[in-house]
Amino acid sequence: MRWLCAFLLLLTLALPGQADGNGRAALARVDLAQSSLQAEGRDRGKPRPLDLRLSLTQPVPYRVYFLDAPPRLVVDFRQVDFSRADTKSLPGSDLVPALRWGKFRPGWSRLVMELSGPYALNVALQSPAEGGAGGALLHLRLDPVDQDDFVTRGNALSALWDLPQPVTGNTAPAAKPGDRLRIALDPGHGGHDPGAQVGAISEAAVMLGFAQELAELLTREGFEVVTTRQDDSFIPLERRMTIARAAGADLFISLHADALPAGEAAGMSIYTWDPDADDRATRDLAMRHDRADLVGGLDLVGTDDGVADVLMDLARLETHPRSEAFAKFAVSELNRAGVAMHRRPVRGAAFSVLKSPDIPSVLIELGFLTDPGDRANLFDPDWRAETARALARAIGGWSQDDAARAALSRR
């Protein structure tokens, strides 16, 4: 079943535009006078680091990827009006073999920049315009890499029509005896998105610390661990799932410690994917978790493509029960360890990081920074250590049960 969805995570990006004086949605425009393309170092006939800065009249969702033959940077926007902007007027446009932009389908604009060789994207940041001006500044930093390190979307047809990439065969071979389970740990928030804050305490910093402690314990226990961020960096939600998938993760665990009005929530909760979850607290948390991607240029709140939605639902027939099974193992071990749980310890929510149909995924709210008891726990080394050990035992028990069930299903 997993092969159905390895590359079928099609996400609709939507951001309401500003309105003009007549109440109509106004498209973002590029200000060439405040935009530039610059190359670092002297021209010695080899690819040089590139720095692209586009000044926009308003923030827009965007996505960035590379294509090959020839090497190209592609930036899709929803939506920028390039009709009054000549690419030759962009300062530095002559630094690359070719540059073009414009509307390529309803609701979408595209920038294509041909490159002199393979590159990697090291910075992709949309921030408020510099100098107090209105609008936004999109900053892309590209550094030359070896051909083997050139990561592309796969083929031009997929990029042109926004189709899933082709899949050949089973992308998730059955585990062999002795294989180590791969766990993806996702410390929530980071960078310009600190998450919940209580005084000088930020959710991003607390979760990064706990993720590092849990990763160290899991590694000692014989698991392989990949973390979606290792420092105070902003990682878009879609990228977090991509990191887990690229690592071949067997389980994805997102870690949070959010904030809700006093008295509304306390204790640990474990969430699995449920697009129909409708209690107010869960909706508030979903908005808090997902809204930060708008700052980075991505909005994952929209509905999925209809065809992809059906295929992902089919894939979840396998992965969703596995996610729920891990949640139950975790609750059992946490209860045994005496860790205080929410009165409804396992819940459903439409968190974007749980949407991946090919990896069992859970989001763990370790507690709420707005609750004094939870806050004290999060800063108690003994509590953190006991919680980490309980989660490690849950992962071990779940993996054995999961392997046994997989063996039975193959008979």
From TrEMBL:
Entry protein name: N-acetylmuramoyl-L-alanine amidase
EC annotation from Swiss-Prot or TrEMBL: 3.5.1.28
Alphabetical list of InterPro entries matching this protein: AMIN_dom, MurNAc-LAA_cat, N-acetylmuramoyl_amidase_3
Pfam families assigned to the protein according to its UniProt record, in alphabetical order: Amidase_3 (PF01520), AMIN (PF11741)
GO terms, molecular function: N-acetylmuramoyl-L-alanine amidase activity
Annotated organism of origin: Paracoccus lutimaris
Reaction catalysed by this enzyme: Hydrolyzes the link between N-acetylmuramoyl residues and L-amino acid residues in certain cell-wall glycopeptides
Signal peptide coordinates: 1-19
Keyword terms of this UniProt record: Hydrolase, Signal
Domain MurNAc-LAA: start-end pairs: 241-396
SMART domains attached to this UniProt entry: Ami_3
Any one Gene Ontology BP term: peptidoglycan catabolic process
Top class in the EC scheme: hydrolase
